[in-house]
Structures are given as structure tokens and as C-alpha cells.
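Section 3.1: Structural characterization of target chains.
Under the original work plan, the team committed to producing a structural model for every single-chain target entering the pipeline before any wet-lab resources were allocated. The record below documents one such target. The sequence was received from the expression subgroup and is listed exactly as submitted; it comprises 497 residues.
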Amino acid sequence: MKTARLQPAVERFLGALGHSPDLIVRQLLWRGSLPIAVLYMEGMADSQTLLEAVLIPLSSGIGDKRIPDDSGDAELERLASEVLRAGDLALVDDFDVMLDRLLAGQAIVLAEGSSRGIRVNVAGMEERSVSEPLTQTVVRGPLEAFTENMQTNVALIRRRIRSPHLWIEAREIGKVTKTAVSILYLSNIAGASLVEEVRRRLDAIDIDGILESGYIEEFIQEKTFTPFPTVYNSERPDSVAAGLLEGRVAVLVNGTPFVLLVPGLFVHFFQSAEDYAQRSDISTLIRLLRYLSFLIALFAPSMYIAVTTFHQELLPTSLLINLASQREGVPFPAFIEALLMEITYEILREAGIRMPRTVGQAVSIVGTLVIGQAAVQAGIISAVMVIIVSITAISSYVMPAGSMSISVRMLRFAFMALAASFGLFGILLGLFGLSFHLCKLSSFGVPYMTPLAPFFAADQKDTLFRYPWPRMIARPSRMNSKNPVRQKSAGNGGKKH
């Protein structure tokens, strides 16, 4: 600040914030003669910490002997070094920095005769406590989820990885919101090129505000248009810790419980934290079930449309007669029938999510049962179509990552249109096109279908199958980790480093 007078300095803060009523200014006389002002934002500063670290220490020196009028700088330094009781404080001489710290919940201490101020970290506000995950639930495993407070989220990861190699790089993104964003990685494992690429993409973001990690995800994901997610997000600290141990990089955004992990490959979206808490044979069976569910959710309606419209000879005669009798009174072709049911189900699903929790689940269940049964009885929809749409919808929930489930829901309509136009030939064309598209994708320089295409035999131990832990000696090879070995071989007793 240019002026050393206290009142003009206080007025400058008040003017910068439009004389906002939540800016609190407490004025004191330090040692009987030196005017001091304490500024903080109501609701963003912790009142108890502010009282114990700032106000009580300053009040204790009110009756001391008088000090010279020109010693404001010296007294401010004494306050910072001897009087104030906060662990995080510093002298600041830039008005913009002080204003930014004030808006972050810190207190600013100003003194008559000094052009500087003290910023004291007393930030604290009401926040949600650590609770169970809402979207990535498990039967066996930790039941902790991230919160909206980034410091809490970092602590949850550090509790699992107590290593000095867990490095954190802090940034502020958003010209208006100035949202705190942190990069987390293990310096002795994560590849230097991957960390540098994450830095470059984050530093290139130029936007007014970041309100959720989804903003960051859209900026740093690959520029190729694709319905598939190329950045993994998780609300589970154990999943993020496991990703860091594989050499991936985490991006934390203040104000959201979802943490980003890069690179995000196709196989990652079929892996669950529960896979590594259970025996390998059980985990393998469940993981194969997820891939089967992916195929059912993607192809079941289109296969039904193709077979009933173009390839009836593929069905047994008795089944064909049964289907024909069910569809005898249905006025629509199979494609329109499936389209009506799929759209109706999507509407019911969205309504169930947006409605109040007390009635949302009931409306979804009752709406699905009542509408499905009434449509069959009215002859608008065949009973088998209700079965097809139901098993398709249930299969889409088997995938642990919701972002992959949404991708399947979008692609399902495209395959239904291809099946209605060209039958099985159209489905094959769509499958070939989808395969080419997936093989062309990459995430932060790593091919999206790794380790399936390109094929890496060494990495198959944690792809379709999950080998026992003593046999998963190396980290995924395409992560380009500095330390590719995560444990000693079983021949050496299976002991980890």
C-alpha cells in the first residue's frame, strides 16, 4: 500500500469490497498509543481461532507503556514475531495480496505508520464431515469419501501414503473465483513427462471461474471429440492413492469431493477399489461380469431390433412364434418400440435423481412398473421389449464409473439406429468404427486401450483378470514410471520394499 496512515488503508479495503457488511473491522490501541485494525470476513474466519490467535494477544498489550509515533513498522514486526499466536502468518506489503488473503478467510492486521500488514491464517467455516462414498460404494474396503475441503482431502491421501515423495503443487485458477487447485504425485514414481504435461494444461486454463472439478476435466482432457471419458474421477481416497502408486497424477480442486486422476484409460473405468480388497478369484469373476454388462448395456436393444426385424431365421421356431404373437397388436416397429421405452426410462431415471430423496426412489420404481405394465396391456409395447430395456438399464449400473455408464447410454441409441437400418451388418459396422475410434484415442500421451491395444502381456495381470498380489510385481509399463517395480518377487518371500 502506498500510504502508511491506518484509516485511509482501512477505507481502501472497504471501498474495494463495496462496504460489504460481512467485512468486519476491529480497531484497537496497541500499548496505549498505536492504532491497530484487524480485518476479517465474517463467516469465513474461524471465530475461536481469531479470538485466541489475534484478538486476545493484541488486547493484552493495550495498557503497556506508550511507544513513539514513528515506530509502526517496528511494532508490526514485533507483533508478527512475538505477540500473535498463529502458526501461519507473514508480513505482506502488497495490497492485492492482502485483499486476496482476506477473501480466502484470513485476517489482516494493519498498524498506523506502517505500509505493510500481517496476514494471519484463521480461515475456517462450516463444512461437511468425512462420510461414506455416495457413488462408488463397496462391500469391503474403506468407507471414507472426499469432502469439499481440499486440505481435508490432501490429509486423507497423506494418511494412506506417508511418504516424503508425495509432492503437492498448488495453483489458483479462475480470474474471479481464484479457486485453489493442487497437483499430487509421487516424485519417485510418476514420470516427469506426465507431470510436466499436467502442469502445462493447467497453466493454459484462462477462465473467470472454476466451481467444480468438471471444469478442469474439460480443459485438460484430450481435444479429440469422443463420448468416452479420458480423465478418471473418484470420490474415494483409497482409489486415488492406488492411482498415485501406479504412477498417475491427481488433480484436486477446492470445493468439490471429486478428484481427477490422469491418465484415464479404458480399463481403469472397469476397476473398483473393492477388487483389491478381495481375493483375486472373486475379483476376476466380478470384473469379467462388468465387461459382460458393458456389452449387454451397449448391444442388447440393437441385437433385439436386428434379429426381430431382419434376421428372424436366427431364432428357434417356437421362440419366433412366441415373439410374433406378442407383437401382433403392437402398432410400431421394433426400433420405435425400443426408442420409446429407452427414452421413457431415461426420463424416469433423471426424475428419480432430481426429485426429493423421500419420494424420488418411490416415483422411479412405481413409475417404471406402472408405465411398463400399462404399456404392455395397452398393446403399445411388447412384454419382451420391457425385459430387454430392463436388463439393459440394470447392466449399465454394474460399471463402477458413472462416466462410462453415461457413454454407453449415448452410444446405445446410435447402435439401435444402425440395427434398424442395416440389421446385424449395421451393428458390425458400428462395432468396427467404435473399435477404430477407441484405438485412436489417448490420454496424456498413453493409448486409451492400453494394455489391450497395443497389447502388453506383462500388464494383463490387472486388466480383464486380477492376479494375486504376490504376482503383480511391476507397475503398469505404459505409465513410464521412474520405478517400475512395486514389490519383490514371490521367490524372495513376497516382501514389499
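The CA atoms of residues 73 and 219 lie 45 Å apart.
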